[in-house]
Amino acid sequence: MFDGLKDKLSGFREDVEESTEAEEAPPEADASTESDATDEPNASAADPAEGADRAEAESDDDAGSDDEPSTFQRAKAFATGRIIIEEEDLEEPLWNLEMALLESDVEMSVAEQILDSVRESMLGESRKQVDTTGELVEAALHDALVDVIAVGQFDFEERIAEADKPVTIVFTGVNGVGKTTSIAKLSEWLADRGYSSVLANGDTYRAGANEQIREHADRLGRDLISHDQGGDPAAVIYDGVEYAEANDVDVVLGDTAGRLHTSDDLMAQLEKIDRVVDPDMTIFVDEAVAGQDAVNRAKEFNDAAAIDGAILTKADADSSGGAAISVAYVTGKPILFLGTGQGYDDLALFDPEALVESLLDEE
Ligand SMILES: Nc1nc2c(ncn2[C@@H]2O[C@H](COP(=O)(O)OP(=O)(O)OP(=O)(O)O)[C@@H](O)[C@H]2O)c(=O)[nH]1
């Protein structure tokens, strides 16, 4: 999952390391000093006291030699924890990072935000003492990514636990992105946590929609509320809520027809569902593999129908990760789950911190 993006982030770390190491190696150094500077550029930083001792020793040993001041100054800089990263060291790596993010389908404003915050934390006044340049880069990237990915994040399970029952959740998005499958998966996810659910098929538009969702309901042993094709979707979901109230069911999962935000009729249907049922949550479903298209649709659906969160399906088949990075920042609404396969258990609660850690993991 997201392997392409992972490689590109790792490329940024290497770029910065390369450009700072090149700068740190003193051009006039003799062979042994050169090897200190290039093979173990940060050995002194890992242990400032040792760095200072070495500096003093070198200063005594080499008294009078030409390279003495630069070796001493560098060791002293390490000893005081100063990280020698200048604006020019970052220029090219940041440019490469921007290109890499855009190639990975990260939305432009999101890429810019990530760049700004990486630049700010790496060139800021109060530079922290860190062991290596790689760690400085990793910390900067970590914070920049979490900041954009975790926008609006809330604890979905807690929301379900605390809400009055039944909790009504309506799913929306374009055709064929995995809405119905995600509903079935979420029903299973809820069952694993002790919550009962009923499915309501508000997709009265598409021929075959009832059969498709019934297959899932039968396989999972869930009840399904459906009307004939052409019926009123709001009425189906309303019936789902009544059924849940009468039968002590915790959650109503309402499917809707796949639609484009530009389809006035279908968008009017969503508004009617909102009016008639007043759902607790509207979840936008799209494919991670759709990249920028998914990000744009998330924004357009949110503008048109105020979503509460998103599920990104087919993350298992997505190498770029751009949609996963961008959706929350662009909509202000969190990604709640990732679909990670075709099985009913292939639904993972979205955890920004864990995602960023896996993206930056060197393994
Ligand atoms: N690999 C993978 N496939 C998925 C995932 N989620 C859904 N799919 C597959 O995507 C296809 C479409 O899923 P559906 O649930 O039928 O899509 P839908 O959005 O309900 O489609 P409509 O009802 O036509 O709007 C199916 O073959 C699913 O098995 C996922 O997370 N990973």
TrEMBL record:
Domain SRP54-type proteins GTP-binding: 334-347
Biased composition, class Basic and acidic residues, residue ranges: 1-14
Places the protein is found: Cell membrane; Cytoplasm
Topology of the protein relative to the lipid bilayer: Peripheral membrane protein
A GO term for molecular function: GTP binding
Keywords assigned by UniProt, alphabetized: Cell cycle, Cell division, Cell membrane, Cytoplasm, GTP-binding, Hydrolase, Membrane, Nucleotide-binding, Receptor
Function comment: Involved in targeting and insertion of nascent membrane proteins into the cytoplasmic membrane. Acts as a receptor for the complex formed by the signal recognition particle (SRP) and the ribosome-nascent chain (RNC).
Residues binding GTP: 173-180, 255-259, 313-316
GO cellular component: cytoplasm; plasma membrane
Subunit comment: Part of the signal recognition particle protein translocation system, which is composed of SRP and FtsY.
Stretch list, region Disordered: 1-71
SUPFAM superfamilies linked: Domain of the SRP/SRP receptor G-proteins, P-loop containing nucleoside triphosphate hydrolases
Name of encoding gene: ftsY
EC nos: 3.6.5.4
Listed HAMAP family: FtsY
Similarity annotation: Belongs to the GTP-binding SRP family. FtsY subfamily.
Catalytic activity: GTP + H2O = GDP + phosphate + H(+)
Cytoplasm keyword on record: yes
Source taxon at top rank: Archaea
InterPro entries found in the cross-reference section: AAA+_ATPase, P-loop_NTPase, Signal_recog_particl_SRP54_hlx, SR_rcpt_FtsY, SRP/SRP_N, SRP54_GTPase_dom, SRP54_N_sf
Protein name: Signal recognition particle receptor FtsY
UniProt cross-references to Pfam families, sorted A to Z: SRP54 (PF00448), SRP54_N (PF02881)
Extent of Acidic residues compositional bias: 15-39, 58-69
GO annotation (BP), single: cell division
